[in-house]
Amino acid sequence: MLFSENFKIAIRALRANKMRSILTMLGIVIGVATVVALLSIGKGATASITSSIQSNGSNLLTVSPGKQQSGPPSMGQSKQASYLYYSDYQLLQRSLVDNVVAIVPSYQSSYLIKYGDQSFTVGVTGVTKDYQESHSYKVAEGRFVSDGDNKSESLVAVLGSQTAKDLFGGLTAIGKTISVKGVKFEVVGVLESKGSSGFGSSDDAIFIPLVTGYNKLFGSTATYNDKKIVNSIAVSVKTTEAMDTVSAQIKFLIRRSHKLASSDELDFNVLSQADLLSTLSSVTQTLTVFLGAIAGISLLVGGIGIMNIMLVSVTERTKEIGLRKAVGATKNQILTQFLIETLTLSLLGGIIGILFGVGLASLVTLTGMLTAVITYDSILLAFTFALAIGVFFGLYPAFRAANLHPMEALRYE
Amino acid sequence: MIEAENLTKVYEMGDSEVRALDGASFTIDKGEMVAIMGPSGSGKSTLMSIIGCLDAPSSGSYVLDGVSVENMNEAEFAEIRGKKIGFVFQQFNLLARTSALENVMLPLTYAGYSGKDRQNRAMKALDRVGLSKRTGHAPNELSGGQQQRVAIARALVNDPAILLADEPTGALDSKTGVEIMELFQNLYKEHGQTVIVVTHDSYVARHTNRIIKLSDGRIVSDEVNHNPIKAGTPRVEE
Question: What ipTM describes this predicted complex?
Answer without folding.
Answer: 0.93
